[in-house]
Amino acid sequence: MTLDAELLLSRGPFTLDARVTVAAGETIALLGPNGSGKSTMLAAIAGLLVPDGGTITVGGRVLTQVPDSPNGRAHVVPAHRRRIGLLGQDPLLFPHLNALENVAFGLKAHGMKVAEARVRAAGWIDAVGLSSFADRRPAELSGGQQQRIAIARVLATEPDVLLFDEPMAALDVQNASRTRTLLRECLADRITAGGERHNITPPATIVVTHDVVDAMVLADRVAILEHGRIVDVGDVGRVLGQPANLFAATLVGLNLVEGIVETPELVRMPDGRSFVSDGELPSVGSEVSVAFPPSAVTVRGARQESAARGPVASEQLALNAWHATVGILEPGARGIRVTLRGDTVVAEATPAELLAERVSPGDTVTASIDAAFVTVYPRRVVVPAVRD
Amino acid sequence: MSIDRRTPLAGGTGIPRLLYLPAAIGFALLILPIVGLFLRADWPRVPAAIVSEEALSALGLSLQTALSATVLCIIVGVPLALVIARSGSRLSGLLRALTTLPLVMPPLVGGIALLYLLGRNGLIGSVLELAFGIRIPFTTAAVVIAQAFVALPFLVISVEGALRTAGTRFESVAATLGAGRWTVFRRVTLPLIMPGVIAGTVLCFARALGEFGATALFAGNAAGITRTMPLAIYTAFNGAGVSQDSAIALSLLLVVVGIIILLLLRSWRTEPEL
After folding, report:
1. Residues A216 and A331 in one domain
2. Is residue A76 part of a domain?
3. pLDDT tier, A333 (very low <50, low <70, confident <90, very high otherwise)
4. Searching chain A, which residue's CA lies closest to the CA of residue B178?
5. DSSP secondary structure string for all residues of B135-200
6. pLDDT band per the 50, 70, 90 thresholds, residue B194
7. Which of A213, A241, A269 is the last residue of a domain?
């Protein structure tokens, strides 16, 4: 069943004003920096908090409706009647119940007979590969095992909507990878207890994460939430492959600048810098995003610059090159990251290269970009959810 | 340089030696009076004093009333603790302060207050007498009420602490799994706070068993009806018919019952965490 959540919520200076729509069987990854409102959105959808305004429906059934007018009456279906499953980064298994009883809990709460609930729970524990641990208390299980039992517990109730709030964040790399694979199989509906599904429609799923791998492995679509607003939404390949905002660009390890196509070969930024790309450019006059990896940015120390390069060097400076002041040096993904003062662009180079160029913080350098690694694409602007 | 092997290196540098002195004095203050009681006892006559009809009647009444008061405290105390723990910080602070008032009040004052509330001319007492012909003061029921009045805060504080430690996260998860409020309370909240409920229950029972002041004023000292162990000890000590020796014997009995309760509490506390 399709989830449609349109939310308005204010907490002091923070405002959440966002809308997400997720189809049955679809998984959307909700990415965003800390404090962007991701978990708040999930809590509102799960019915654990009441927003200041907005409507949440699942398959047309209204779960939350809060009119904007102060004297309108809010309609909020309580969490236990929503058929919405929630899994956070902590497994939160009930410590007084063993693994089997934890998984059976939701089934019993839905009125299933104890014996049947236990049989079904055992099937789910088997499905997550922990059948020999069914009688263990949570304290006797590892963090990864606990999270897998928690996955079995939330899936067992076959909810209409699944909400995952950074489900891998508390796990080490190996367990995270294993759990991610398990989740992928669950979402692809390849894992069910004993092969039987009782809820015919597959769930609409939201995965909150700030790990790009989660989005790539689990999601059909990606939404980027920043400062309480959806700033980009669409296919994984487009939102992350051709990022439209700095957060997404940083997440996938790209520099991002914006400009206007000035000539069929050249893009100009508002600050006067210009870029050329080896690829084809959108039509002249259109607003574009320019993306390139930090490793495509080369920084040259001023010393070498002054060592008589001649007029050729200054001509090159006009295209894909500019003078900059080095900010800080820090460990990067593939070497040392060099930030440039007053600029979002970062460079990345091997220690040897930086030593040869004698680049250190505060130095004036020439930064240049290899046109072969520059991608230029039309700038996407997501219109905020229209509220009536 | 040699290392003192008796000093565990892990877990800090140990206690400053000077502090052992006040610690010893404190311990002596608690234990020596009880040791004195044991030494002063006229042991050959202790068995007779303990199995005397009066002593057994007082012990029976004490156990019966303390147990009733404890059950009453659990029935109203656990929900009260839940309300305090789940209220907003301002309201819960106010409720907590009011709930713990009997702790800082002399039990005698509590007895007077109960008398003025439930007595023949009291706010509720007069209504009860006029409408239903019920008289509470100087009955066994009055003993139970007096005991519950002084013992309830112990249970509430203990359970409320357990509720705060448990938090609401497990309850939220249970709700998203489809459990209604009542199911969440029975199957998640209660099991999670059970160690706190048990500790609170034992403290509550112990306090009810030792209750004297409020009982004396509100329930009186009628043998077989309101004369619980502490009142029997007081009566015996004042020499009303019995010698001081039987007062000591009765005191010893109460001490032994107290020790058994504390041992019970200890064994519950040292049980492996759920």
Report:
1. no
2. yes
3. confident
4. A80
5. --TTSHHHHHHHHHHHHHHHHHHHHHHHHHHH-SHHHHHHHHTT--HHHHIIIIIHHHHHHHHHHH
6. very high
7. A241
Say yes or no: A34 and A59 in one domain: yes
Contact (CB<8Å) A90/B179: no
Tokens of B47: 């068995």
CA distance B255 to chain A (A): 35
pLDDT of residue A19: 93
Q: Which residues in chain B touch residue A153, judged by CB atoms under 8 angstroms apart?
A: 177
* A120–chain B Cβ distance below 8 A for any pair: no
Q: Is the pLDDT of residue B268 over 70?
A: no
**Are B174 and A90 inside 8 Å of each other by CB?**
no
Domain that holds residue A132: 3-241
Whole-number mean pLDDT of chain A? 87
The answer to whether residue A229 sits within a structural domain is yes
- What residues have CB less than 8 Å from B44, skipping those under 6 apart? none
**What percent of chain B has pLDDT above 90?**
57
Q: What is the mean pLDDT of residues A58-78?
A: 88
- Nearest CA of chain B to the CA of A24: how many Å? 19
- Whether residue A192 is predicted with pLDDT greater than 90 in this model: the reply is no
Task: Confirm or reject contact between A83 and chain B (CB < 8 A).
Answer: yes
Residues β-bridged to residue A290 = A257, A376
Residue-wise pLDDT tens digits, A306-324: 444 444 444 445 578 888 8
What is the second-level CATH architecture of the domain B63-269? Answer: Orthogonal Bundle (1.10)
Q: Are residues A262 and A228 in the same domain?
A: no
- The alpha carbon of A184 is separated from its chain's Cα centroid by a whole number of angstroms, namely 16
The pLDDT score that the predictor gives to residue A200 is 67
Instruction: Decide which of B236 and A206 is more confident.
Output: A206
- Note whether A198 contacts B: Cβ–Cβ < 8 A: no
pLDDT single digits (tens) A118-165: 999 999 999 899 999 999 999 999 999 999 999 999 999 999 999 999
CA distance A141 to A146: 6
